[in-house]
Please model this.
Amino acid sequence: MKKLTQKEEEIMNFFWDRGPMFVKELKELYAGQKLHYNTLSTMVRALEEKGFIDHEQFGNTYRYFAAVTKEEYSKTTLGSVVKKYFDNSYKNVVSLLVEEENLSLDDLKKLIEEIENQQNNPQ
Model:
């Protein structure tokens, strides 16, 4: 899966949060910004080319919707970060979180408990 630019991710968050929209509705979410309709339309079509968005036709206009869930994108993004910065080791990620005190001992115990429960009760 391709990586999103910051602006593309912002647009995708609107689709993930609000569901299907016409470009006109998306533009209304940028009311305080001077973002031209054609620029936004081009960005949406680029997201469609990348496979993140799809559309359904209503007459001569399109209503766009997310073709990839936020969870699917998050997993892919996390995986690439772990691969690139942590030698493909989730253990190294957790170690850093513990060292930086972003993950408490209680949180770590709960995480271990969840992993053990998943291993004992596979779905």
In short: The longest strand covers residues 53-58. The mean pLDDT is 89.
